[in-house]
Write a structure and sequence with these properties.
It is a single chain. With about 300 residues, the protein is mainly alpha-helical. It is about 65% helix and about 0% strand. The protein has helices spanning about 10-15, 20, 25-30, 35-55, 55-60, 95-130, 135-150, 150-165, 165-175, 180-195, 195-205, 210-220, 220-245, 255-265, 275-300. Helix 4 (about 35-55) crosses helix 6 (about 95-130), helix 6 runs parallel beside helix 10 (about 180-195) and helix 14 (about 255-265) runs antiparallel to helix 15.
Length: about 300
């Protein structure tokens, strides 16, 4: 009998599967693999966030201090510029740069808190509906459908008329915006995840519904939630700015980006910078977050090739 030839040794590269050679999620989210435009957006977002957090120390002037003799001063580079007021002043002589910095702090802070409230409410409703099913699922989804049909601005106006326009009230009212999107997406994800073998194994071992939701379901649906958070933030920020622009949001003398745009709309012909400066800040923030959200959606989507 002839000897059997030994099999050729498998190289280390061949032994590693395609899935193992593929970049991990951590590496795909790493700084080195980020596109240049996303790196710029992250840096710009960090600068804006740092300026908002350190607004009392970064702002060159008091944002609510009025100086009538310095009203409607032009920004740097234009005729009528006043030294020390880089973005000019408004109709009351207040420094626009300082008010923009404090406005970022107020507007972004309200939007972030409202976004967290919306995500918590919607995610909780989606988890309950998806895991419990039955009449609970039907009741939650019926509530979602009813909420979609009611104009949200009408609800906000009623809420402000009843409870006032204090910042905590605004946060709670804005938190009701778009919670239904979280509920529907989370419910759909839960309906897929709850049929997995590890969920059935956890139930067989006697795990409670709360434990399964927090330990097994929620971590597996974190990726679409993160993407939805980043994509919903611009709309929440624009909602807060719109309410302040209409005069039913943040009240003066507190600086808010939407309120600043509203105050400057009467001076667009002779002092356009009063409205344009905060409007550009709003546009910049929304574009930055939107670009980062689109990138996260592509990175976290397993169907998208690297």
């Amino acid at each position: 009998m002839s000897a059997v030839a030994p099999l050729p040794a498998m190289s280390a590269t061949a032994a590693v599967g395609d899935d193992e050679r593929a970049p991990t999620l951590r590496s795909r989210l790493g700084w080195r693999r980020m596109p240049s435009r996303i790196k710029g957006c992250v840096i710009a977002a960090a600068v804006l966030l740092l300026a908002a957090l350190l607004a009392p120390w970064v702002a060159p002037h008091d944002p609510v201090a009025t100086q009538i003799l310095l009203k409607l001063k032009a920004p740097i580079g234009l005729e009528g510029y006043e030294a020390g007021y880089w973005l000019g002043t408004d109709q009351l002589g207040r420094d626009l740069l300082s008010r923009c910095i404090h406005g970022i702090r107020v507007s972004v802070g309200i939007a972030l808190l409202g976004l967290v409230v919306s995500a918590v409410v919607g995610t909780s409703a989606g988890l309950v509906a998806g895991l419990l099913g039955g009449w609970v699922d039907r009741a939650v989804m019926m509530l979602v459908d009813v909420f979609i049909t009611v104009p949200f601005l009408l609800l906000v106006l009623v809420g402000i008329a009843v409870f006032g326009s204090d910042i905590p009230v605004l946060v709670l009212l804005i938190g009701l915006a778009r919670w239904e999107s979280y509920a529907r997406i989370v419910r759909g994800q839960v309906l897929q995840v709850r049929e997995m073998p590890y969920i059935e194994a956890a139930r067989a071992l006697g795990a409670s519904t709360r434990f399964i939701a927090l330990r097994h379901v929620l971590p597996n649906i974190a990726s679409p939630l993160i993407v939805l958070l980043t994509l919903n933030f611009p709309s929440i920020l624009l909602l807060e700015s719109s309410l302040s622009f209409l005069g039913i949001g943040v009240q003066p003398p507190t600086a808010s980006l939407g309120r600043m745009v509203g105050d400057g709309r009467d001076h667009l012909i002779f002092a356009w910078w009063v409205a344009v400066a905060p409007a550009l800040v709003i546009v910049a923030i929304t574009c930055i977050v939107q670009m980062v959200g689109d990138w996260l959606r592509d990175v976290l989507d397993v169907k998208v090739d690297d």
